[in-house]
Amino acid sequence: MGGQGGGSFRDALDAAYTLAIRHLDGIGDQRVAHLPAPEAPAPPDGIGFDAALKLANERIVPWISASPGPRYLGYVTGGVTPEALAADWLVSTWDQNVSNAAGSIAADVERRTVAAFGAAFGLASSMHGQFVSGATAANLVCIATAREWAARQSSAPLTVFAGSAHSSILKAMSITGVGRSRLRPVATLAGRTAVDPLALEQALAIHSGGPAVVVASAGEVNTGDFDDLLRVSEICKRHRAWLHVDGAFGLFAAFDSGLRPRLDGIEHADSVTVDLHKWLNVPYDSAIAYTARPDLQREVFSASSAYLGDDPDPLHFTPENSRRFRAFPAWMVLATRGTRGIGEWVGANCRLARQFGEAISATGRFQVLGGIPLNIVSFTPTRGGATARDRFLQRLNAGGETFMTPGQLFGQPTVRAAFSNWTTSAQDLDRIVAAVAASVD
Ligand SMILES: *Cc1c(COP(=O)(O)O)cnc(C)c1O
After folding, report:
1. Which PANTHER family does its entry note (predicted)?
2. If both were cysteines, with which of 67, 130, 159, 272 could 290 make a disulfide (CB 3.0 to 4.6 Å apart)?
């Protein structure tokens, strides 16, 4: 290695291994979040491996959050299983570029992995999937493909209908030129975030201006609620609308036999988004975009050039050309645990969410909004409105026992607790409930 003496691979990896084990061994007890973290050091201009590592150890390592730990409940954040982490280290070691299928088995591993997960989620076998960086990128791939479909039917602008659309859907509409203003919000069922099928039917019936895409939620981000995918798919069929299902985390309901019926109808989707760095508990970043129209997807994303390969090279189907071998950690988790093993933590997270909701409701100082159909609890202090919510959340997160994020539901300011870590235990729940009770006025 050049410059000021880099370490050997063995020295560098030994040091990384020691740091990694120290981090993992302490993850259940270190501060969950640092609010605020101090200013980070800029990278020095070549001080050698030992000095660089020492600087990182002193000025960066202590301020890393315990977001893969059991009491981080912000956003929807998964942790990392041992086999997923080991696989991810190997992905970096192997440094494959899965832009094309030439010269390595990696692209075929990806192809088989997306097919295996597609089958496990109950998608139609004709669905074509690729790994992308997250559900935002997956929604972009799916909306871009739907826009291509729309452009072939009519020159009229595309309209997107949704009961609840994640902000990344609007981002995708903006990037693809559909435009954020083309979203038509549809009424949701009383006290829920799931779309009202009658309202959707009516909205599509009176819509007369060009092609329509319906974005359905399989796991809405404030409540974890599901649209009735079977009814929504029938409505889409009647009105010739494209059905996109955003199942960023909720698709993992397929892995728990009690929850699985919530996904009935998913087999009729034209495109589907799922995140793996959330509930599968693989490291960032990892998600899959599935569409039923790889031909149209290729029209949008193909990058033909003499030196690049041809079908079925992945680069023709996603925004990226060069691509990390993201499939391997997902392959390893499925191979290690199976759908049943993954379903165990999915079910456990949902039970913990319900128990958390019951425990905080029983104090009389919090109100749960929108029910707890899956793994997310949206709640708010019973008295004091937005100011009380802000003060409570600030105090809770500053305590370092747990971390939650704010939300808004039915016009009320809320706090969201999302259980998606494979290691969260009943003991963790006791600590979380105690921290919550101690942080309210
Ligand atoms: C998290 C989430 C997204 C965005 O996912 P990223 O992985 O952060 O890009 C999109 N839709 C839903 C429903 C989500 O929960």
Report:
1. GROUP II PYRIDOXAL-5-PHOSPHATE DECARBOXYLASE, MIP05841P
2. 272
Which of 168, 170, 272 has most ligand 1 atoms within 8 Å of CB, for mutation?
Answer: 168
Q: Where are the domains of the chain?
A: 1-65, 85-333, 338-439
CA distance 230 to 315: 33
State in Å: Cα 156 to ligand 1 middle: 29
Q: Whose CA is nearest to atom 5 of ligand 1?
A: 135
Would the pTM count as exceeding 0.90?
yes
Q: pLDDT (tens digit, 9 = 90+) per residue, 6-28?
A: 779 999 999 999 999 999 999 99
State which H helix or E strand residue 128 sits in.
strand 128-132
Angstrom distance (rounded) from CA 226 to CA 235? 16
pLDDT tens string 161-195: 999 999 999 999 999 999 999 999 999 999 999 99
Using DSSP's 3-state secondary structure scheme, residue 234 falls into helix
Q: Which atom of ligand 1 is nearest to the CA of 136?
A: 9
Residues 6+ apart with CB under 8 A from 281: 78, 79, 80, 81, 84, 333, 345, 420, 421, 422
Q: How do 405-409 and 376-381 pair as beta strands?
A: unpaired
113 three-class SS: helix
Name the residue at shortest CA distance from atom 3 of ligand 1: 135
Q: How far is the CA of 284 from the centre of ligand 1 (A)?
A: 12
How would CATH label the architecture of 85-333?
3-Layer(aba) Sandwich (3.40)
211 contacts 154 by C-beta, under 8 angstroms? yes
Q: Pick from 127, 92, 117, 104: which is nearest to 326 by CA? A: 92
DSSP code string of 267-290: GG-SEEEEESTTTT-PPSS-EEEE
The CATH homologous superfamily to which domain 338-439 belongs is Aspartate Aminotransferase, domain 1 (3.90.1150.10)
List residues near ligand 1 (CB under 6 A): 76, 134-136, 166, 168, 219, 221, 246, 248-249, 275, 287
